[in-house]
Amino acid sequence: KRINPVIERIRRALSQNPFCDRQTLIVNRLTAILGSPFSGSSSEKIVRLVIKNLPTSDWTTHIVDLSKISSDALLLRKEDETLTSSIDYVVDSTVIIAATPTYRATYTGLIKSFFDQLPADSLTGKLLLPIQTGGSAEHSLSIEHGLIPMVRTLGASVSTKSIFSWNEHWNEDGSPTENMKHLVNQSVEEIVSLCS
Predict the structure, then answer these.
(1) pLDDT 10s digits, 127-171
(2) Nearest-angstrom CA–CA distance, 73 and 113
(3) How many other C-beta atoms are found inside a 10 Å radius of the C-beta of residue 38?
(4) Helix, strand, coil share (%) of the chain residues, nearest 5
(5) Please, what is the Cα angle at 166 between 176 and 7, to 5 degrees?
(6) How far, CA to CA in Å, does 54 sit from each of 35, 57, 91, 106, 155?
(7) What is the rounded distance in angstroms from the CA atom of residue 97 to the CA atom of residue 159?
(8) How far apart (Å, rounded) are the C-alpha atoms in residues 110 and 114?
(9) CA 74 to CA 141: how far, in whole Å?
(10) Which of 24, 26, 51, 47 is nearest to 35 (CA)?
(11) 100-48-95 Cα angle (round to 5)
(12) Which pTM value belongs to this model?
């Protein structure tokens, strides 16, 4: 069986993370960061699908909803306990999900302001799953040119199964299509494989 060099590179990076050491690890920790200014967004729905499909006995999960954090804190105008604890959740996680809608052909300013406050190299040895939503497939490369380079500056190992979603991935009643479920399942399988 041929070894995928990208997967092997991610495995090596994750080995630097003590939270991925199965000899001492009780459960893996996943923190999802919601970069939409609105609750119930498509990006949030995808995050919840990913979490729902994780093996519950092996994972603890936490969601950071940036729309509920003080804008003054996100803009470095004041200290805020919710923001501080959210950063701690991210730094102490095995896996991070960064989820954002597409604004002006890239991620939101909300998610950028949060990542700007993470310490240098704080994502080294962590697996990050990028999730981005947009109006059409025409914006699908924005995840590669915007969100992924941003998280790599902090040392993250980026999942090869990132998700870019648009209207065709949702049924009229708001439920995910089979294609959307397939994308989620691929991402979950990679996460579980790399942290097992």
Answers:
(1) 999 999 998 888 889 999 999 999 999 999 999 999 999 999 999
(2) 10
(3) 10
(4) 45, 20, 35
(5) 85
(6) 21, 9, 20, 28, 24
(7) 10
(8) 7
(9) 27
(10) 47
(11) 75
(12) 0.87
Residue with tokens 């209207």: 167
pLDDT band at residue 24, thresholds of 50, 70 and 90?
very low
Tokens of 4: 């995928």
Coil vs helix vs strand at 149: helix
Q: How many residues does the chain have?
A: 196
Convert 71-109 to b/e letters by CB count within 10 Å (16 or more is b).
Answer: eebbeeeeeeeebeebbebbeebbbbbbbbbbbeebbbe
- 54-105 residue pLDDT tens: 987 789 999 999 999 999 999 989 999 999 999 999 999 999 999 999 998 8
| Alpha-carbon span 128 to 96, nearest angstrom | 5
Token digits of residue 59: 């994972």
